[in-house]
Structure formats: structure tokens, C-alpha cells
Amino acid sequence: MAGRTSAIFLVISTLAVTAAVVAADLKKGYYTPAQLGSLRQPSPGALSPDSVYQVSAYPVPVLDLAAGDGRQYVQIHCNTCHSPRYITMQPPLPAADWDSEVNKMIKTYGANIPEEAVRKIIAYLQTHYTPETRKE
Amino acid sequence: MAVKPCLWPYMATAQDPPRANTVEPFTGPEPNSHWNSVGPYFTEPQKAPLLLLTDRPVQLETPRHYFLTPFTPNEAFYVRWHLEGIPNAVDLKEWKLRIEGDVKNPIALSMSDLIQKFKPISIAAVNQCSGNSRSRLRPRVPGGQWGNGAMGNAMWTGVRLGELLDMAAVKTGSLFLQFQGLETGQGPEGFGSHVFLKSLALTNPVLDECIVAYLMNGEPLPMLNGFPVRLVVPGYFATYWTKCLSWIRVLSAPDENFWMKTAYRVPDTPRGNTTPEDVKAGKFKTVPIERLPVRSFLISPDGLSKIPAGMSVTLRGIAFSGFGRVVCVEVSDDGGKNWAAATLGEDHGPYSFRAWEMPWTPKSPGRYSLAVRATDQKNNTQPDEPVWNPGGYLWNRIERQEMVVGNAS
């Protein structure tokens, strides 16, 4: 559990660093790990009367995908463009739909995923996120 | 006199059926039966706790009760981004709105130019996600699993798009306007995962009604709703309402980019309706999604609590259409057999939410199926048939809400 969580943190923080390399007038793509169910108020932040308008990093609550073979490939490859919550938000989808979703990410959105990882990602999603198999 | 604790009228008894105290974490494969999506409450910068669909990119749904008023508060306004490179900070010393491409005078306007050089204009308009209510579809389709809360109404204030185009002097023979905001993705260039681009034809009459808005309900836009400026396309789905609008590009050819050619398209059929079989058989053409079909909602009471028989309550809700003013909202308490007209609230313009209300006194205990339907000035009325298409767009079926009425003594 702890190892898995820190792996997710590592992926997220790596992405945050990558995304931070942007023009000086515009900062974007900053996200920060968070917890769901926390009812603490967000900090109001410090404001100065200059021309920069900013908000804090967008929080990404930790999400544990179903444990199983292939999960690490999902965490690495799918996470480039979106967090794994894009997977758990979906209704349970038939196995064929997961196949076409993953292929859509590659062909339509240009995701660069090695072939072996593609097979493992599809198998993982079909094992844990169909109407027959989805538990959580 | 001491009352025995076991007779306290408000005390739960052991006979109560055990039940979960939260909604299920996901719905399906059957349609989502809840008014909203089922995600947890979550707080993002400048926002009240909203319902979380996704966190990176951010998608948040507005909870039902915020629709009790015809204007949706900025902090509760739903959020939908496509790409993960969402602005966290914008420096208005550097930021410009550029009009370029097929124009005689390319221009770059600062926020102070927009505020000072043009007469501000305001319009109330509903912003609704193309996929609002996608979780109602049978069979379910992939995509953002919105309940009904991917919509909001605001008073938008800014500059007429037409004035900006006049200043830039669009060349004759130009065909399209392409809009680009500040969001970028990790995907490779040339793919929809790299930038988000939308276009409208220069012949489209909606351009006369478009504004570039720097105020939302009289305040700067929240970053997540498109600070510093957002395109407002009254009557059209939100996909055209480019957030953090920074480039308006005049094109002399149709826009072939992914977000126009492949995404946000609907079957060229009545109501955009089709079947999975016809999709497989490639039986229809598709067209870009455009205007909001007429819809109406009961907001309160929300059916989560009982109403005592004989008590008069006020049914309240909202209605809207992208085709013109809502002229009639009707309510049924027998599942749609008999209808009675509701009283409409203040008219804030043809593209705004229109509030409605109606007193209701259920005489006897039981289960009531309340239904609400709206009609707009073009005489479009909400149908009672579902819609299905692979994108999960254009849902506008008559909404129903079960209301449980209990004994009053």
C-alpha cells in the first residue's frame, strides 16, 4: 500500500515538474497530491497587487486502482495525459469497449505505448472494470 | 412526566432496514438513477465543494440544489477541461487576445484594452456540456459520466465578438473562425491531445450574439471557468465556449482538427438519436453538435425526504432552450398522464435559465411520479423518449422524480 502510494506520488510529481517548464507569463499543469474526504478549507493564499493572477496547484486525490497484473502499466502510460480516475469514473464497460478505448488513446490521441504494455493494459482493464468483474 | 426513550418519535428503531449512508461509488451497467453523478464532494481552487468526476484534467459537477436560483454561483459552476495543462497563473502584463490569420489588421488586445476600448455588453446564457446527463444512456457509453449538473447559467459581460472582428478586418472569402485557449496537453502535435481547438462558420448567425466575456455574474471568471476571458456562444453547447480564449484565427478553409472533424459530432438524425447497430453499420452521417435542446428540471423538493400528506409544498425548478425563450413549463404528478402549467419566473433573456414554480398538495400518502416538461417559443417540447448516440450527447428526455408522501398523523 505505502509503496504503491509513493509510486503514484512519484509519477504525479514528475509530471508536475515536466509541466512546470512553461513560458514565464503563464504557469499551468501544476497538480498536487490530496486526500478525498478531507473537509479542511482551502487556504486563501497570499495576494499582491501585480499583474499575475494565480491559484494553487490543482489537487489530485490518491486513488488505488484494483490490485492486479498490469496495473503498473496503467499507472505509467495512461497517467501521461490523465489521472487513473478517468478509468474508475467510467461505468463498467464490456471487454470490447476497453479494447477500443485503449486503441482510441493510441490511434486518435497519439499515446505512445509499447505493444506489450498495450496488451497488458487492455487485459488489466478487462479483468477489473467490466460489468462482470468490477468490484470497487 | 418522563417519556420512555423507546417512545421518542424521532428515534430510529432496530426495525429500520440497514442501509448504506452514502451513494454507491459508481453506477452501471444500468443508467445512473441519481439526479447528479455519484462522485465524492471535492474542493478545487476558487470553488465550493462540488462533485468530482476527474481530477487531472479537472471535471466537476454542480450539485442539484445550486439550481434553485436562475443564476448559478461562480464557485458552484461546473468545470470541464479536456487537457491536463490547465492554467494555474496568468500574467495580464503578458497575456493578449490575438486575432490573426485571414485578416487585414492582425491585433493583440490586453485585458485593459478589452475593458476600456469597447462598450461592455451583458447577456444571460446557459452553458451546458454536450455530455450533460450522459450517465442516463442505455446502453451506457464511455466519457464523462455526468448526471444533470454539467450546466450553469451566468450573466456574462464583455465585448461583442463582432466588434473585435471589425477591428481586425476579416478578409472577404474567409470561411471559419477558430478559437484556441491556453489549455495544452501532453499529446503529440497534430493530435487532439495536444491542443483544444473549436471553430464556427463565419456565416453562422450565432456570431452576432457571441461575446468575449471577462466578467461572470459580475466577477472575474474563476481560473477553472476560463480566466481571463471566455467565449460566450449563446444557445450553443459549451464545447464552443473556449476558456482562457487567447487566439481567434480566421481560416479560409474548413477546420479539419480532431475537435471539429471527429469529436463533438452527433448523428444527422432527429434528436441525434441512433442505435449501436446503426453505428456498427455506419448508417448515418454526423454533424457538429450545435444548439441546446429544450430541457427542464425539478430542483426542489428533491425526493430525498418525505412530504406529509395534505401539506402544500412549492415545486421549484428551472428550464431553458438554445432555440429561444421557454414559454411554458408543465408539471404532472401522475407520471405524465395529466399536466398543469407552472408559473414562470422573471425573464432574463432567451438564453437564460427560466425559473418556474407550482404549489403542490398531495392529498394522500403514497408514491408520486412528478414529471416536468418545457416548451420553447419555436414550439419544441421535451419528448418522453430517451436518446442514444455513441458520444452520449443531446439528452433532453422529460425528467421524472419519485416523491414519497407519508401519513401526516
Keywords for this entry:
heterodimer, A: 136 residues, alpha+beta, Cytochrome Bc1 Complex, Chain D, domain 2, 2 domains, two-stranded parallel ribbon, 5 helices, 41% helix, elongated, disordered N terminus, B: 409 residues, mainly beta, Sulfite Oxidase, Chain A, domain 2, Immunoglobulin-like, five-stranded mixed beta sheet, 4 helices, 25 strands, 33% strand
What does this structure look like?
The complex is a heterodimer of chains A (136) and B (409). Chain A is 41% helix and 10% strand. Chain A has five helices and four strands; from the N terminus they run αββββαααα. With 136 residues, chain A is an alpha+beta fold. A two-stranded parallel ribbon of chain A has the order 2-4. In chain B, the strands form six sheets. Chain B has a five-stranded mixed beta sheet with strand order 7-6-14-10-11. In chain B, strands 18-25-24-20-21 form a five-stranded mixed beta sheet, with no helix packed on it. Chain B is globular. Among the domains of chain B are: 97-263, Oxidoreductase, molybdopterin-binding domain (Sulfite Oxidase, Chain A, domain 2); 295-406, Immunoglobulin-like, CATH 2.60.40.650. Helices cover 6% and strands 33% of the residues of chain B. Chain B starts with 40 loop residues before the first strand and ends with a strand. Chain B is mainly beta. Strand 1 (26-28) of chain A pairs antiparallel with strand 5 (87-91) of chain B.
Put the structure in a nutshell.
Chain A is α+β, with helices and mostly antiparallel strands. Chain A has helices at 2-19, 71-77, 85-88, 95-107, 115-128, and strands at residues 26-28, 31-34, 52-54, 58-61.
